[in-house]
Amino acid sequence: AGTGSIGAAVGPLLAGLISPTGWNNVFYMLIAADVLACLLLSRLVYKEVRGWCGYTTRQRGFKEI
């Protein structure tokens, strides 16, 4: 929840600071933010997909009978 709030607060501020250099730079900033978000979320998505597929980690060692 906090990360989304920070992005919602900082995004328009950065867009306002970057827009005088050209709107193309604003779009590049947004693309960079999307790529960064995808990279940071990929680990979480990987864990979720493994859970849905029923993947279980193999236990190491011996089991007691």
Mean pLDDT: 83
Shape: elongated
Helix and strand run: HH
Instruction: Give the percentage of residues in beta strands.
Output: under 5%
* Major sheet description: none
Transmembrane segments: 26-46
Protein name: Solute carrier family 37 (Glycerol-3-phosphate transporter), member 2
Domain Major facilitator superfamily (MFS) profile: 1-65
Organism: Hypophthalmichthys nobilis
Write a short abstract of this structure.
The protein is an all-alpha fold. It has helices at 2-18, 23-52. It is 72% helix and 0% strand.
Write structural notes for this entry.
The chain is an all-alpha fold and 65 residues long. It has one domain. It has helices at residues 2-18, 23-52. Helix 1 (2-18) runs antiparallel to helix 2. The radius of gyration is 20 Å and the shape is elongated.
